[in-house]
Specification:
This protein is mainly beta. The protein contains 2 helices and 17 strands. β6 and β7 form a beta hairpin. The radius of gyration is 23 Å and the shape is globular.
């Protein structure tokens, strides 16, 4: 028997071959499956405008936009209503909001409903995707940590609301006390990393149709 065969036989006699551990990662989504949820436009066309918002509760699910595992965001998705030409003119021209745009925002929640911007996704023009669910892969992935919140930001407007949902479904907006019904046109969207505002305003019966895809940081598996 050669020396190599003797060595292999000794290892086998010891009980088992030993293999290196394998680093494993999960791919998962943060957000609500839009299947069966119709955006409000064009039938009852209400939109998200000049604000950052996140889903606080979806039915009995609390905190659906809280990240369960640290990792990197590799794509984000959005389901859009299809406004009529008249509705588009109202938002784009009459209201002075311009073209529909949006991006996702990573928030760090603090006390008293305060949240600060940790990361910001790229802003996308959305008009040509009206009436569709679309996913945007990121050319540069974005780090996210467990417990952070994924919000949706629009400095203009976006038809992303499913209305007439149960009161147990609700979302929060980046507006402080006394500003929940502000219709003056002020821009409340959070677009600068490091800024902190209060998400005081809670709106019930509405589902925001957006989400992100995350690849978790790898963890060592058992041998």
């Amino acid at each position: 028997m050669t020396a190599r065969k003797k060595m292999l036989a000794a290892v086998m006699a010891g009980g088992a071959l030993v293999f290196p551990t394998v680093a494993l990662a999960d791919v998962f989504s943060v957000g609500v499956d839009p299947a069966g949820l119709a955006p409000a436009c064009p039938a009852d066309c209400v939109v998200l405008a000049k604000v950052t918002g996140y889903q606080a509760k979806s039915g009995t699910t609390k905190g659906p936009m809280i990240v369960p595992q640290s990792g990197r965001i590799v794509a984000w998705s959005i389901t859009l209503g299809k406004p009529t030409a008249e509705q588009r003119k109202f938002f784009e021209e009459d209201s002075g909001l311009g073209e529909a745009t949006a991006n996702f925002t990573v928030l760090r929640a603090k006390k008293k409903l305060m949240s600060s911007v940790v990361q910001q996704g790229p802003t996308v023009k959305l008009t040509k995707y009206f009436g569709k669910t679309v996913q945007f892969p990121l050319t540069r992935t974005i780090s996210v940590k467990k417990g952070q919140v994924i919000a949706l930001t629009t400095p203009s407007w976006v038809p992303v609301m499913a209305v007439k949902q149960p009161n147990s479904t609700s979302w929060r907006a980046s507006r402080g006390k006394g500003k929940c019904e502000d219709t003056t046109g002020k821009d409340y969207s959070q677009t600068t990393i490091g800024t902190t505002v209060q998400y005081r305003c809670l709106y019930r019966g509405v589902q925001l149709l957006y989400g992100v895809t995350i690849v978790s940081n790898p963890t060592a598996a058992a041998p």
